[in-house]
Amino acid sequence: MELSTKGRYAVMALIDLAMYSKDENAISLSEIATRQTISLSYLEQLFAKLRKKGLVKAKRGPNGGYKLAKPMANIDMASVIFAVDEPMKATACDKSKTGGCNGRTSKCVAHDLWAALTIHIQDYMRDVTLEDIVNGKFENAHMIKYDAA
């Protein structure tokens, strides 16, 4: 499964916002854009969607910007990804076509495996919160060795 730029950037931006907004100050999108090397106009589009889904709130004025709309412990990564209309699925099925995979008229032979993997990925992302990430729960995840056997 590959997450598109939209989903990855939304997650990165919310983590950045959570990390830098420990007090009551709002964070400007230009600050996030600079730190994360994400286009400001792209962030504006993502934050409009995140705001509509109740994950962030905007503050106008000279010290304006964005703040989290809920505690970090109440914002899970699946919500962030789904808020920007990003699908999380391991199948190549198109919901607009009935019954088929990859343009076929029936399911592919591995369809049920990929569908089950999709459920696991979504459940995992629902279990990971901004608080987990900001508190370093995954700091050493890059050290995990994968067995290619």
Structural features, described:
The chain is mostly helical. It has a single domain, classed as Winged helix-like DNA-binding domain superfamily/Winged helix DNA-binding domain (Arc Repressor Mutant, subunit A), CATH 1.10.10. 44% of the residues lie in helices and 5% in strands. It has helices spanning 5-20, 29-36, 40-52, 77-83, 111-127, 130-134, and strands spanning 56-59, 65-68. Strands 1-2 form a two-stranded antiparallel ribbon. β1 and β2 form a beta hairpin.
Oligomer description:
single chain
Rounded to an integer, what's the Rg over CA atoms?
18 Å
> Percent of residues in helical segments?
40-55%
Average pLDDT, to the nearest integer?
A: 85
Q: What is the first-to-last residue Cα distance?
A: 20 Å
Strand content: 5-15%
Mind summarizing the main beta sheet?
A: 2 strands, antiparallel
SSE pattern, N- to C-terminal:
HHHEEHHH
Question: Which labels suit this protein?
Answer:
mainly alpha; Arc Repressor Mutant, subunit A; 6 helices; 2 strands; globular
